[in-house]
């Protein structure tokens, strides 16, 4: 039971990678990339969890109650921002690729020459 | 290589990758048994040192503020990149943004969508503003507040008025606001250098009460700048995509 | 020992990820991605991380579906 969240992380990674590799539509591929990246959020938060602890906000709990690790939460926050930025860029590329080559199939795009 | 072969090769290789990944992850000290010294050390000193009760925001904007500068610039560059990649290419023309349907009987947006969008715009702006300005007390922060503020503008577009959306967020003004946000963050850090302190050190008065809105020095200020920068960047990205969809056509 | 809530949410998240990958591209996949974002956000809440919850809600259920739907609209318009 102590390793179950990490099994879920590995499952999400594997499923997302399967989607990326066998995709026939560029937007579907981008969404599967989002899924792959979301596995890292679960991993980060799973590493920092302390059983029976509260969230690291001391506005209404006394100052030194045991809390979960705040550093991995800060890392996960940055991760989410980066995902949004990368997805926006990838979608812009997908639109231009469609305008140039007329297809959104990654397996056909690989054969076209510029 | 046919798609079926590709799929089988991936299933074999993917199983191997996931097996190695699980083998590595099983070396971790189990879920819930966090051993590390770094987290506990920060929890011990954070509230006393910064007068901010939101420890995650204190980490983001003070202890690891330099990483946050990098993260905001990732968003800045993404907005600039989307604008560059989606520029009008040779062989396309951009229709002027005028109301072409004024004379025709276009089916209006459904009243339910319009009412809900307009009803929610005010509260969304308020919520975004609250989130961006309360980073040091509660679970909130500049980034979440910024995107909520941008969502308010997008709600205006959803209620049927693309031209109003363009008029309320002209590209020049949004560009300037985004630059002010990103630049403001850097300037706060540089002004610490001007006082002889390390870059991004918290030099403003820390306030009396931990967790009040005016406490924790530069953390609140940085969170505000990050909020407006993120809002402007997101509005720019959506405006670019909307231009592509509605205004740019093929043909000379 | 993990709480029942956390175990349930982990199973739902795994199922949601599988669903997002197996649905074909289009509005349905974007909708499933939005639901997956909300499931992830509730999971983060159960892991005592409210700040990450807010970020994931705002990004995964609002910002990403907006830009994905705009891209799909652009692509479909040219096909006409």
Characterise this structure.
- The complex is a heterotrimer of chains A (114), B (252) and C (80).
- Chain A has a single domain (4-109), classed as Helix Hairpins, CATH 1.10.287.
- Chain A has 4 helices and no strands.
- Chain A has helices at residues 4-21, 26-47, 70-101, 106-109.
- In chain A, helix 1 (4-21) runs antiparallel to helix 2 and helix 2 (26-47) runs antiparallel to helix 3 (70-101).
- Chain B is mostly helical.
- Chain B has one domain.
- Chain B has 9 helices and 2 strands.
- Chain B has helices at residues 3-25, 37-50, 55-63, 65-85, 111-133, 142-158, 162-168, 171-194, 218-246, and strands at residues 92-94, 248-250.
- The radius of gyration of chain B is 24 Å and the shape is globular.
- By secondary structure, chain C is mainly alpha-helical.
- Chain C has 3 helices and no strands.
- Chain C has helices at 4-22, 27-46, 50-79.
- Chain C starts with a helix and ends with a helix.
- In chain C, 50% of the residues are buried.
- Chains A and C meet through helix 1, helix 2 and helix 3 of A and helix 1, helix 2 and helix 3 of C.
- Strand percent estimate of chain A: under 5%
Gap between N and C termini of chain C, in Å?
A: 56 Å
CA distance, first residue to last residue of chain A: 52 Å
Helix content of chain C: over 70%
Let me know the number of strands of chain C. Answer: 0
- Rg of chain C from C-alpha positions? 15 Å
How is the topology of this model organized?
The complex is a heterotrimer of chains A (114), B (252) and C (80).
Chain A lengths: L3 H18 L4 H22 L22 H32 L4 H4 L5
Chain B lengths: L2 H23 L11 H14 L4 H9 L1 H21 L6 E3 L16 H23 L8 H17 L3 H7 L2 H24 L23 H29 L1 E3 L2
Antiparallel strand pairs in B: 1-2
Helix pairs in contact in B: 3-4, 3-9, 4-8, 4-9, 5-6, 6-7, 6-9, 8-9
Chain C lengths: L3 H19 L4 H20 L3 H30 L1
Helix pairs in contact in C: 1-2, 2-3
In a nutshell, what does this entry contain?
The complex is a heterotrimer of chains A (114), B (252) and C (80). Chain A contains four helices and no strands.
Summary tags:
heterotrimer, B: 252 residues, C: 80 residues, mainly alpha
